[in-house]
Design goal:
single chain, 2-enoyl-CoA Hydratase, Chain A, domain 1, six-stranded mixed β-sheet, three-stranded mixed β-sheet
């Protein structure tokens, strides 16, 4: 069954759901486009007060569908594809309503980074966060590393990006990556209660408070995303990337040259 991203609107609260449980809600090109279309719809909803972003089944999202890494299924260059992705996800910042991410299971790669671009993250006990891009011969390229750097610092970011190690929910709470850790069966209800609390406050006050907070970090995030787009484009065409693909196809150790 193909994955999908769905939208449900209940009064002033919208819920986005990643629905590809058999692959832990991993994203492919089609799901990206569905998400970007949903964000476009939400931008046009003047009465929207809060957004919940969640995953169906076991995980929020295990990131990019590994089978789609390094393959372009549309008639555009790698650079153009990345520009589409950056513009699509930056619509999060154009919403008047804050976005609450309900994290559970695996929260990995680009999906972890996208969650970091949102306003609030909460996590179910047992949630695992990871940035495994280097093991696939690419680099993180969705802007979330800049946010994680602001939260957790140089050492933690370097460890996660360079080694691909896992951060559990309690460590994520300690670094401020998530603001609450709850029992798995309380995750959706907690996110809903938070959204309802936000929706009950004066709309103008909530909107402006969110802008004040966001203005502190976004210039750095935008600069990081610009760098990532340039470097990821280079990586995709590098000799090392070609060698990694060849080595895996031939079931042998890769011989990297740094070029």
């Amino acid at each position: 069954m193909a994955g999908q991203v769905t939208l449900e609107v209940d009064g002033p609260i919208a819920t986005i759901t990643n629905d590809h449980d058999e692959k832990h809600n991993a994203f492919d090109d089609d799901m990206d486009l569905q998400l970007f279309e949903i964000l476009g719809q939400l931008r046009a909803m003047s009465d929207l007060r809060a957004v919940i972003w969640r995953g169906e089944g076991r995980s929020f999202s295990s990131g990019r569908d590994v089978g789609s890494i390094g393959t372009i299924k549309v008639e555009m260059s790698h650079h153009e594809l990345m520009r589409r992705g950056h513009r699509g996800i930056q619509q999060l910042w154009q919403l008047d309503a804050p976005v609450i991410v309900a994290c559970k299971g695996w929260v990995m790669g680009g999906s972890f980074q996208r969650a970091l671009l949102c306003d609030i993250r909460i996590a179910a006990e047992g949630t695992r966060f990871r940035l495994p891009e280097l093991t696939h011969g690419v680099i993180p390229d969705t802007g979330g590393v800049s946010v994680l750097y602001q939260m957790a610092g140089h050492g933690v970011v370097s460890d996660m990006v360079l080694t691909g190690r896992i951060m559990d929910a309690q460590e994520a709470y300690g670094h401020g990556v998530v603001s609450r850790v709850v029992a798995p069966d309380e995750l959706d209800s907690t996110a809903r209660a938070m959204a309802e609390q936000i929706a009950s406050t004066p709309a103008a006050s909530a909107k402006l408070a969110r802008l004040v907070i966001s203005h502190m970090s976004r210039p750095g995030i935008r600069a990081s995303m610009d760098d990532e787009m340039i470097y990821q484009t280079f990586v995709s065409r590098s000799d090392d990337a070609a060698e990694l693909r060849a080595a895996r196809a031939e079931d042998r150790p890769p011989r990297f040259t740094g070029s």
